[in-house]
Amino acid sequence: MQNLMNNYIEVGAIVLFGIGFMTLLLNNNMIKKIIGLNIMDTAIFLFFIARGYIYGKDAPIVVGEFKGVDGYINPVPTSLMLTGIVVSVSMTAFMLALTIKLHEKYKTIDLREILNMKEG
Prior knowledge:
By secondary structure, the chain is mainly α. Helix content is 72%, strand content 0%. The chain has helices at residues 2-6, 8-26, 30-52, 76-106, 111-119. The longest helix is centred in the C-terminal third of the chain and has 31 residues, at 76-106. Its main location: membrane.
């Protein structure tokens, strides 16, 4: 139980990922699926950024006196998550554009109705 309390950010990220995954699986509405995928993305970013932070070290921005290499956190995980955020926003825009095209063609964004139209 003490480990859960010490790693509460990681536990929150895992719970958030589960919420996004269930939203993605249980809804037929395309917008809700996109929201679920974005919640999952956010959970992954939160998890990696929380793991990349090292208590007692500063951000790798030298202001004043240089503290040595061990005085700063590694900037690579943070920069990778920044790249991931950009990719996530681009992917969301692409999925929303595809949803608009689905709505224009089938007049609905419900996947079950679209599949029924294609079968029937």
